[in-house]
Specification:
By secondary structure, the chain is of the alpha+beta class. 30% of the residues lie in helices and 26% in strands.
Length: 146
Amino acid sequence: MQAASQSEVRLIARQDIYSIVPLLCELNPKLAEDTIRSRLEEMITQGYQCAGVFVQEKLVGICGIWIMTKCYVGKHIEPDNVYLSPDYRSHGLAQQLLAWVYEYGKSQGCVATELNCYISNALGRSFWEKEGYEAIGLHYQKMLDK
């Protein structure tokens, strides 16, 4: 497969943002689709954007984008919900997608990129480290209704 040479990465237009739901469902199989749609709707109001990888106009990969500023790092771009359909992995598409995200971040005035990766996701951690990310802390979570 020469997917990388036949692909395009672009920002998904607001009116088309729900086209990412099937891929979000694959990424989050324990969540109901209506929950994903509801959360996506709220995320959009908080500045969420999404880049898509298209192969012959078929959406095969996504990378959510958050742009924010924090004291310790400044303005940065955070890849979120990064996912490629299994048939399109190991063809350079993830690197192509991330290269696009980094350039988009720079165009928006970002000075860095950072993300979260689950401790249990050994393949993900390996991928991000190969991509040049360094682990700088732990991500903690506490559910408020427990």
